[in-house]
Automatic annotation (TrEMBL):
<keyword id="KW-0547">Nucleotide-binding</keyword>
<keyword id="KW-0067">ATP-binding</keyword>
<dbReference type="InterPro" id="IPR003593">
    <property type="entry name" value="AAA+_ATPase"/>
</dbReference>
<dbReference type="InterPro" id="IPR015854">
    <property type="entry name" value="ABC_transpr_LolD-like"/>
</dbReference>
<dbReference type="InterPro" id="IPR017871">
    <property type="entry name" value="ABC_transporter-like_CS"/>
</dbReference>
<dbReference type="GO" id="GO:0016887">
    <property type="term" value="F:ATP hydrolysis activity"/>
</dbReference>
<dbReference type="InterPro" id="IPR003439">
    <property type="entry name" value="ABC_transporter-like_ATP-bd"/>
</dbReference>
<dbReference type="InterPro" id="IPR017911">
    <property type="entry name" value="MacB-like_ATP-bd"/>
</dbReference>
<dbReference type="GO" id="GO:0005886">
    <property type="term" value="C:plasma membrane"/>
</dbReference>
<protein>
    <submittedName>
        <fullName>Macrolide ABC transporter ATP-binding protein</fullName>
    </submittedName>
</protein>
<dbReference type="GO" id="GO:0005524">
    <property type="term" value="F:ATP binding"/>
</dbReference>
<feature type="domain" description="ABC transporter">
    <location>
        <begin position="6"/>
        <end position="240"/>
    </location>
</feature>
<comment type="similarity">
    <text>Belongs to the ABC transporter superfamily. Macrolide exporter (TC 3.A.1.122) family.</text>
</comment>
<dbReference type="InterPro" id="IPR027417">
    <property type="entry name" value="P-loop_NTPase"/>
</dbReference>
<dbReference type="GO" id="GO:0098796">
    <property type="term" value="C:membrane protein complex"/>
</dbReference>
<keyword id="KW-0813">Transport</keyword>
<dbReference type="Pfam" id="PF00005">
    <property type="entry name" value="ABC_tran"/>
</dbReference>
Amino acid sequence: MEKTVIDAHNISKIYNPETIPVYAVNNVHLHLLEGEFTALVGPSGSGKTTLLNLIGGLDKPNEGNIYINGTDITKLSAGKLIDFRLHNIGFVFQSFNLIPVLTAKENAEFIMLLQGIKKSEREKRLQQLFKEIGLEDKTDIRPSQLSGGQQQRVAVARALASRPHFILADEPTANLDSVSASNLLDLMEKLNREENMTFLFSTHDQRVIERARRVITLVDGRIASDSAAVPTSIPHEQVVT
């Protein structure tokens, strides 16, 4: 039986609601099943990042409800929401959000420490991940000594290491060369296939779009199209972030 991971009902994010309302997300309904590999595309300002932040509980909608694995996260207190995110959601931020004083390995390990995962299991996961992202020789280096692409790969490793129910990734390949992007997508597809991990990407990268099995296009905060298969062609203005 297919399991629903994300069920967002008629959600809206409104700025300046008391004066001149601006709808960053406008009455969106989104239903994702476990194991989906989905790309969220759309022009700059279409609401992609805002929608990811709402689904991930980093922001709250003005209207609507968001159910993650059956839990309405819009009803959770701040403390319970933090705990829920910790054990259910993996984030890949466009700005990396690595902790400057920690090494690459410590950054990737951080969420697992908060989850209370045993050291032996943490070491096993990190060794495998750093090998797969091609940074096994950079584990003891701090973010300031890494390139943008290397920081991006560490951020992805951090999100994957905790084995969350699903991953929200905002432009995960934006700073990567073709080889690194391909390897990273190979890893994500492997986790999706072998562990049924669900992925939702916000992206303008055609490399991600071509691998996605479902493409959702946002325009002006609304879902303009939603396909279970990658379109043969996507208008250029719809994939520019």
